[in-house]
Request: fold
Amino acid sequence: MRVAIIKNSGNIDTKIERILKNNKINGDFIEKFDRNSINIYNVVIFTYKNKIQNISKLIEQIVLEKKTLVIFINNNLSVGNFYNVLNDIYFSIVNEQYLEVELPSIIINNSKYVSEINLLNGELRQLKETLNAINLINNAKRVLSKKGFSEAESHQFIQKKSMDLRLSKKLTAELIIQNKIDF
Reply:
């Protein structure tokens, strides 16, 4: 697990570093922050002392687009401008008073959930792609059946054309549907 702490040159950095070290969590302090530099990290920690313009919008983009766990350390109970991501699994606010207890707990527990969610989302994407391919092939079989092919003949035709053209069955099915393959 890789943790990025956006440096702010204050005593809160020292506190975060000590807490992470005590809990055997590796953290890198980042001085110059850009959205692409966080791609290698599982967790990004911001504090209320960071001098970043529109920090709430930046955090919102990281949470919603990158699906990276973001922890914001605040010194009061206000949620500020984080209402768009407040209930998101990829976002947590930690009060500075409870940093010792909450920070390691959130990093360890939420990281497990986030990585499992990302894994499940990847599997879901693959299943959707497979379902899409099956639907396209079935639609191509319907087109072929209207031209007089039986179910078995349609299946064999798609399979043979795929091999002959060196295309996937999905691409072959799309070409059949678009009427770009000779029968």
User: Anything to note?
Assistant: The CA atoms of residues 20 and 26 lie 7 Å apart. The radius of gyration is 25 Å. The domain at 3-115 is CATH 3.40.50.2300 (Rossmann fold). The first strand starts at residue 3 and ends at 6.
